Amino acid sequence: MGNWNWDNIRLYVITGENYHPGRAMLDVIEQALQGGADIVQLRDKTADKDELLRKARSLKELTRHFGVPLIVNDYPDIAKLADADGVHLGQEDGGFAEARELLGPDKIVGVSTHSIGQALAAQEAGADYIGVGPVYPTGTKPGRQAVTTAYVREAAAGVRIPFFAIGGITPANAAEVLAAGAARLCAVSAIVGSDNPRRVCEAFKAQLTAAGEHGGAAVRRIQLNGAERTVAAATVEELVLQLGQQGKRLLVELDGAIVDRSVWPEAPIREGASVELIHFVGGG
Ligand SMILES: Cc1ncc(COP(=O)(O)OP(=O)(O)O)c(N)n1
Ligand SMILES: Cc1ncsc1CCOP(=O)(O)O
Ligand SMILES: [Mg+2]
């Protein structure tokens, strides 16, 4: 497990180079780290082992610079050779005991789970964290049945080790996952497939911070520009961040009154609030 403080590891980004043709993987992940990603996984289902090792070594240099752990998907031997911080194994990958033996007690071993039974078995076996998913159907794991937020609820109630909700999670549905009790989120396409990975990570982090360490604390149903929406924001400032609107020329109307930007950090978003975000359109 090493000396990582899991309280501060809440946003997990996984590489997915097919989602950003023409952009270098290291640049995309660096932007995610600048946006607050707390843990990185190298997942590459097509590279051969030499290439994987090269990628793992270059990612390790980057993650070391940001002080966050690097996990290698599927291959404990590559994790060892690259001096990565751990490995992630799925239910079909097996080899948990061998991975622990190879990497030692100080490295992280994470396990995918799709049911509470698998979660409790991984916890019992000594996993450092588990993945809980896919929460929603996702093109990153096509054909894999979604476990829905029902399993997130079960994990929140029954699992003691850190768990990351994964699968089809975006800033737009994260509040629902947090409301189900998740305190940690993991994403591939929503982050690395975005034009602005940094902004997406900031949006996720704002929701995680607002939800608190047990998840769900600041989840509210509001009317946002006339449509019902679940958000994880206690204040106008947090809402703007979560929606990825920070830095934009924006007016916020809360329950019919314009909220001055200087009081956004204190202006509370209550359950049932009506919020209008009005953008200024640049002109000549
Ligand atoms: C954090 C995290 N959770 C789940 C997975 C999926 O692992 P697995 O089921 O082995 O599938 P592949 O990713 O290997 O296709 C993961 N990689 N990371
Ligand atoms: C690897 C994996 N395991 C369960 S869901 C998933 C894919 C998550 O990717 P995305 O965030 O793009 O849905
Ligand atoms: Mg796997």
TrEMBL record:
It comes from Paenibacillus thailandensis. InterPro entries: Aldolase_TIM (IPR013785), Beta-grasp_dom_sf (IPR012675), Mopterin_synth/thiamin_S_b (IPR016155), Thi_S (IPR010035), ThiamineP_synth_sf (IPR036206), ThiamineP_synth_TenI (IPR022998), ThiS/MoaD-like (IPR003749), TMP_synthase (IPR034291). It catalyses: 2-[(2R,5Z)-2-carboxy-4-methylthiazol-5(2H)-ylidene]ethyl phosphate + 4-amino-2-methyl-5-(diphosphooxymethyl)pyrimidine + 2 H(+) = thiamine phosphate + CO2 + diphosphate; 2-(2-carboxy-4-methylthiazol-5-yl)ethyl phosphate + 4-amino-2-methyl-5-(diphosphooxymethyl)pyrimidine + 2 H(+) = thiamine phosphate + CO2 + diphosphate; 4-methyl-5-(2-phosphooxyethyl)-thiazole + 4-amino-2-methyl-5-(diphosphooxymethyl)pyrimidine + H(+) = thiamine phosphate + diphosphate. Residues 11-191 form the Thiamine phosphate synthase/TenI domain. Binds 1 Mg(2+) ion per subunit. Gene3D superfamilies: 3.10.20.30, Aldolase class I. Belongs to the thiamine-phosphate synthase family. Mg(2+) binds at residues 74, 93. Its EC number is 2.5.1.3. This is Thiamine-phosphate synthase. GO terms for molecular function: thiamine-phosphate diphosphorylase activity.
